[in-house]
Amino acid sequence: MTVAWRAATWGDMRGRWWRWLRRGVAGLGVVLLVAVVTGWLMFQHIPSWYEPVEIPPAELQSVRDNLVATVDGLSHAMANAREPFEYRFTQDQLNAWIAAREAIWPMSREWLPEEVRDPFVVLQSTGVRLAATFHHAGFQTVASLCLDVRATERGITMRLRDVAGGVLSVPERWVREELARLDRDVWPVGKRLNYQSGPGRLPTLSSLFEGVVFPNGWKWQNPKRRFRVTGLQFLSGEVVVRFAPEPF
Q1: Measured at the alpha carbon of residue 104, what is the angle toward residues 215 and 182, in degrees to the nearest 5?
Q2: pTM (2 d.p.)
Q3: At what angle do helices 60-80 and 91-99 cross, to 10 degrees?
Q4: Angstrom distance (rounded) from CA 121 to CA 96
Q5: How far is CA 233 from CA 89, 126, 178, 192, in A?
Q6: Structure confidence by residue, pLDDT tens digits, 39-68
Q7: Which of 134, 139, 190, 194 has the smallest number of Cβ neighbours within 10 A?
Q8: 3-class DSSP string for the chain
Q9: Is residue 201 pLDDT above 50, yes or no?
Q10: Backbone angles phi, psi at 238, to 5 degrees
Q11: What are the tens digits of pLDDT across the range 139-185?
C-alpha cells in the first residue's frame, strides 16, 4: 500500500513537473517571440523627428540661390573680418541643400553608397543627429547617430552618444568594431587634409565614444584666408559658428 501510494505520488509529481516545464517553455517562447517582434518593430520604426526634405523642381532655384547667397556672405565676412565673427546656419537650410545636392552638384551622387538614401540633419542643443534611410538585403531602417560637438581654441571635440536603427540602439561593441574597420581600411588616421591649416591631424574614429578632437584650422579659397572654428553654439534647429580668420 505504501509503495503503491509513493509510486502514485511520484507519478503525480512528475506529471505536474512536466506540465509546469511545458508551460514554462511555452511561456518563454511567447516572451521571446514578443521580444523579437517588438525589437523588429522598433528597428523598423520611423522616428517622428525624421522628416527628409523633398524639393519640388519649381523650388530648386531658390535653394540654389540661398546656398550661393550664404557662401557669398561668408566669403565677404572672411575678406573683411579683422576679428572673430559669428555666422548662423539653420537646420532647414542644411536639409534643403542636402536634398537639392544632386541638382546642384551632379557628382554628389557618388558621395553616399547606394544603400543610403534621404540623409537628414537634426540640430539639437548639445550637437547634431545625422540620419538616413538604410536599405539592405530586402529590409530597411532609419539609421542615425547622435554626436555631442563642441569647439574651442584647441579643436573641435566630438563624442558619439548613440547609434540607432529606428528607435533601437545598436550595440556599442558592434559600432566600435565597424569604426575600427573604417580606421583600418578607409579613414586617413593621423593624416592632414590638403585644405587643413595648422598642425592638427585626423583622430581615430574608433575612439569616438570616448571623445576625439578634430582639427579646427582650415583654408578658405575665395578670398584666400586661413581660419579656425573656435566656437559652436547649438540651439534647437540652428547652429552659430564662430570663425577666427588669419592671414594666408
Answers
A1: 40
A2: 0.79
A3: 120
A4: 10
A5: 11, 9, 30, 26
A6: 334 445 688 889 999 999 999 999 999 999
A7: 194
A8: CHHHHHHHHHHHHHHHHHHHHHHHHHHHHHHHHHHHHHHHHHHHCCCCCCCCCCCCHHHHHHHHHHHHHHHHHHHHHHHHCCCCEEEEEEHHHHHHHHHCHHHHCHHHHHCCCCCEEEEEEEECCCEEEEEEEEEECCEEEEEEEEEEEEECCCCEEEEEEEEEECCEECCHHHHHHHHHHHHHHCCCCCCCCCCECCCCCCCCHHHCCCCEEECCEEEEECCEEEEEEEEEEEECCEEEEEEEEECC
A9: yes
A10: -160, 160
A11: 788 888 999 999 988 899 999 999 988 878 888 999 999 999 999 99
Least Cα distance to 216 among 198, 194, 238 occurs for: 198
Residue type (1 letter), 74: L
Determine contact, residues 143/130, Cβ cutoff 8 Å.
no
Distance CA 231, CA 98 (A): 23
Quote the cell numbers at residue 125: 542643443
Rounded CA separation 22/28 (Å): 10
Residue 236 in grid coordinates: 534647437
Question: From CA 222, how far away is CA 78, in angstroms rounded?
Answer: 9
Q: How far apart are CA 198 and CA 188, in angstroms?
A: 17
